[in-house]
TrEMBL record:
Record lineage: Bacteria, Bacillati, Bacillota, Bacilli, Bacillales
Source taxon at top rank: Bacteria
Bilayer-crossing regions: 22-42, 47-66, 78-94, 106-129, 149-167, 188-206, 212-229, 236-257, 263-283
Name the record gives this protein: Zinc transport system permease protein
Keyword terms, alphabetized: Membrane, Transmembrane, Transmembrane helix, Transport
Membrane topology note: Multi-pass membrane protein
Annotated organism of origin: Desmospora profundinema
Amino acid sequence: MLGGIRFDMIEMILQYEFMQRAVIAGVIIGLISPMVGVFLVVRRLSLIADALAHVTLSGVAAGLLLQKSFPALQSVNPLYFGMGFSLTASVFVEQLRRLYRSYQELAIPIILSGGIGLGVVLISAGDGFNVDVAGYLFGSILAVGSSELHAIFGVGILVLIMIALFYKELFALSFDEESAVLTGIPRRWINLLFSLVVAMVITASIRVVGILLVSGLITLPVAASLQIANSFKQALFFSVLFGQIAVFCGLAAAFYLDWASGGTIILVSVAILLLVVAVKRLVDLWKRWSATGQMTR
């Protein structure tokens, strides 16, 4: 009975074309976001996702403002402007990290502040498209069109190719950058390529989870996986698994409860993290109790 109910629920969701697109987009985003997030978290650069997301907001606002001023640009998706801004910002991040070698984390708040400031100015200058901006800020399952799905698919392929080709280099740079450089790994170009990939992942994720929440889908599944993983590959696997669960459950709940898809997916991610932490605590307590009981015997 329960299996039939679940099947009926899934069938009901997938009978709508917009939900089919949302689910496909969600599967791709739920795959590539945690994969990129694992490397970001290990390198202690998880906040770069927030910085690039806010720069993307500036690009989207610029695109909407240009569309308002020049009707000929109406056919251009504002996300392409956002991706251009985000890719440019990712290059600046790497330049700033090289400039402040002893304080590389400064690159993130510099780009974050600039992105927020520019975004606020552009949004205020383009008063009249606030409703459009809300969809980009918080995500919307209704907003994933065919062209955007194709773009998300393309980004997903690029990310998978990049990680497959440069997995060893990214792994080495993530754990011991200086030793990796000594072995001949081109740190500058690998870091730049990875930053560009992060920018594309963030832009591709915006329609599903929104600009303000995209960093959550990148980091929360990773945070949960690190609680139980015993190796980097396990962390990668569990991150993707938790990301997929969050996307599927979040989209289903958003559909039936009429909630914002982005917020719902992030809440599911938080719930997964809390559940994993609680289960791990219980397992640790049980092991200690068992060990204590054996010693007393």
